[in-house]
User: Which sequence fits this backbone?
């Protein structure tokens, strides 16, 4: 048998294959490295954004409740805020609801105190407390606890209350320390601070 | 070794490089897209939620502006409630276009719908809709709903950092957690109407589709009249007092007669005793050795905490007391036209707060006694076009307002208020035409005084040791002797309103 010789179908030499493999390895290494870096970056950025949104959520919760509060007090360490809020909605267990359960969820009509001349909703008020429990920020309204934010980034809200003769306002600042940074320095926390200020619309004196 | 040249296979390295860059770019773009899409959506929700409140409060502000147009003496143009839809004593904000093409405001197409209802509180403090049958100044309830369209896709925000992950709960008993719980976005249906009805009272519940994703917030404001007598002393220029044997404190005549309770926290009237507040629209505040059981505010002063001031001190509070012009009163009685001899007046009809029996007199130099008309509460107004130098006695069941154009110089014993209530004897000093002219009101010993003074252009002085129950509004106040002043908190609702105030603010967060 005579083998036909095809001079134009010669294969790659070993050196060429080795060279090609080396280049391929470098390319794939670059792609994989880039992918991992991108994934880490995505996680970091996504985590940062998510924590930032939680910052804003804490601020918005506090803002909403401070605006409708009758009284605002802040603990010495500025991390526990206690608010007294009108009971606009009849809740289960309220006097009206005990005698008529169908009123649960209904809006109250205001009353005018004959002794203090203040407008009230019902004879009692709701107490809302904002506090920190580990990595979570809690909102407790009349004993019912809601976790409004939770992050391993050490979210820390800080509130101060200023009570003047004719007005009262609370300033809020929420910071966190991004977990993907390694410096663990104070600047990393201060660099994430979000501030807000809300006036008590119901400023009054007893 | 000879390397053969194969021209047709050139460019592999370039192709590989381009492919690599393309793949990496795809990964990067995907990362960027994922991050920004979620973040932008969450940011849109935050913005819309806050703007919905701006819209609701803007609607309430517009309603408040209309209410202020109804103040006595105001002659606004356009007249109150122009463009609003009245129905009895209820007013609905101007129609905002049609459902398919609503009129909006702001760059983000915000909408507001506001309903103003006239209301009042009876003597027990119970709320009623409609005009007050006693003729007293009305209250208003403002309910305002602000709506903000939500930009972007119908998707939740970045709630996945919270533990239980229940974004939306099918049984409707809760709204999940995180942003979903706070912001209550209406993606397809109006959750409020579906759950609580359009007015929030549980009636008319319906599944109502929304044109586009939106966030709505609702607020309720109670608006009441600002009366002149909201503090013990309010002056524009200077305050001087109280002396070493004097004091300023408060009580509430609705809860009984005055006695000193300010230093006894266990006293049932203790809470009423610390409203003897002093407000000065200038830095000029002189305090002697008498205590003030209330707040002190100045405009640029330097009042420092001391054991004599038992309230909040604020040195940065502007205070505006406009000059007093003679208000419109009902047509005066034909006689008498002067009180130059001792007179007893028993009106033929009792009148009302807004329509008292009126007398116009050129002078008042003698004693005048006002009696009740039958057994009804009787309302009397007197306009004296000169100085007041006489005496007055207000008997039980009578409410007297005295407007005088000139000055006043009497002894405290000349002003007899047998009702015991400061609101029943009110003196109003009409501001001189020349703003540089200062009225004078001088009250001397002996005697005590139960009543009020509202004289924005007057220098008001008390000398000796009169015991005053009521409230003082003027240009200057001097009571540095042994003068004692007891502010009556019942005066909060007395007198002609100078403005309206928001007495309560609540948000329906459901």
Assistant:
């Amino acid at each position: 048998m005579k083998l036909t010789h095809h001079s134009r179908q010669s294969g790659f030499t070993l050196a060429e294959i080795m060279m090609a493999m080396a280049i391929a390895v470098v390319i794939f290494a670059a792609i994989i490295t880039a992918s991992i870096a991108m994934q880490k970056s995505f996680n970091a950025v996504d985590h940062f954004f998510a924590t930032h949104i939680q910052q804003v959520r804490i601020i918005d919760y506090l803002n909403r409740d401070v605006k409708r509060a009758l009284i605002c007090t802040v603990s010495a360490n500025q991390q526990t805020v206690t608010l007294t809020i009108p009971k606009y909605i009849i809740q289960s267990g309220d006097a009206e609801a005990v005698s008529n359960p169908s009123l649960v969820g209904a809006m109250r009509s205001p009353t005018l105190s004959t002794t203090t001349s203040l407008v009230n909703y019902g004879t009692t008020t709701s107490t809302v407390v904002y506090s920190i429990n580990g990595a979570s920020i809690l909102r407790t309204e009349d004993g019912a606890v809601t976790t409004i934010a939770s992050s391993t980034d050490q979210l820390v809200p800080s509130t101060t209350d200023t009570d003047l003769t004719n007005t009262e306002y609370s300033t809020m600042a929420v910071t966190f320390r991004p977990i993907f940074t390694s410096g663990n320095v104070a600047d990393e926390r201060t660099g994430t601070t979000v501030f807000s200020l809300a006036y008590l619309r119901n400023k009054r004196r007893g | 070794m000879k390397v053969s040249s194969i021209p047709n296979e050139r460019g592999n390295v370039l192709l590989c490089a381009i492919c690599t860059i393309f793949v990496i770019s795809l990964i990067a773009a995907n990362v960027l897209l994922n991050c920004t899409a979620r973040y932008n959506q969450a940011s849109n929700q935050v913005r819309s939620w806050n703007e919905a409140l701006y819209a609701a409060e803007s609607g309430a502000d517009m309603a408040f502006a209309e209410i202020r147009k109804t103040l006595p003496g105001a002659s606004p143009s356009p007249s109150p409630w122009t463009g609003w839809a009245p129905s009895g004593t209820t007013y609905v904000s101007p129609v905002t276009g049609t459902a398919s093409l609503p009129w909006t405001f702001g760059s983000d197409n915000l909408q507001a719908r506001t309903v103003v209802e006239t209301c009042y509180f009876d003597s027990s403090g119970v709320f009623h809709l409609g005009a007050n049958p006693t003729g007293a100044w009305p209250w208003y309830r403002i309910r305002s709903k602000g709506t903000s369209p939500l930009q972007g896709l119908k998707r939740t925000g970045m709630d996945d950092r919270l533990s239980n992950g229940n974004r939306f709960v099918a049984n409707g008993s809760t709204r999940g957690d995180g942003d979903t719980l706070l912001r209550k976005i209406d993606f397809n249906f109006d959750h409020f109407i579906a759950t609580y009805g359009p007015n929030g009272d549980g009636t008319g519940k319906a599944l109502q589709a929304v044109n586009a994703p939106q966030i709505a917030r609702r607020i309720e404001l109670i608006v009441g009249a600002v009366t002149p007598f909201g503090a013990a002393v309010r002056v524009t220029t200077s305050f001087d007092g109280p002396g070493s044997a004097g004091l300023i404190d408060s009580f509430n005549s609705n809860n009984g007669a005055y006695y000193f309770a300010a230093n006894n926290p266990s006293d049932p009237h203790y809470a009423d005793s610390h409203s003897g507040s002093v407000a000065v629209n200038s830095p000029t505040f002189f305090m002697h050795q008498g205590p003030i059981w209330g707040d002190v505010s100045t405009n640029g002063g330097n009042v420092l905490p001391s054991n004599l001031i038992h309230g909040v001190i604020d040195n940065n509070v502007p205070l505006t007391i406009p000059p007093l012009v003679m208000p419109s009163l009902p047509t005066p009685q034909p006689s008498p036209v002067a009180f130059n001899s001792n007179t007893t007046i028993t009106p033929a009809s009792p009148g009302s707060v807004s329509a008292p029996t009126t007398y116009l007199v050129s002078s008042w130099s003698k004693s005048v006694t006002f009696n009740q008309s039958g057994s009804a509460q009787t309302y009397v107004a007197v306009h004296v076009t000169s100085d007041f130098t006489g005496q007055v006695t207000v008997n039980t069941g009578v409410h007297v307002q005295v407007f005088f154009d000139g000055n006043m110089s009497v002894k405290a014993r000349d002003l007899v208020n047998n009702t015991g209530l400061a609101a029943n004897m009110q003196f109003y000093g009409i501001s001189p035409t020349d703003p540089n002219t200062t009225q004078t009101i001088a009250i001397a010993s002996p005697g005590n005084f139960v009543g009020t003074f509202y004289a924005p252009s007057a220098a008001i002085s008390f000398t000796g040791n009169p015991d005053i129950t009521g409230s003082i509004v003027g240009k200057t106040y001097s009571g540095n002797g042994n003068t004692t002043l007891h502010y009556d908190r019942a005066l909060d609702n007395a007198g002609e309103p100078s403005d309206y105030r928001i007495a309560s603010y609540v948000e329906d967060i459901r």
Notes: The longest helix of chain A spans residues 14-67. The first strand of chain A starts at residue 71 and ends at 74. Chain A has two domains: 14-86+127-199, 88-123. DSSP finds three helices and ten strands in chain A.
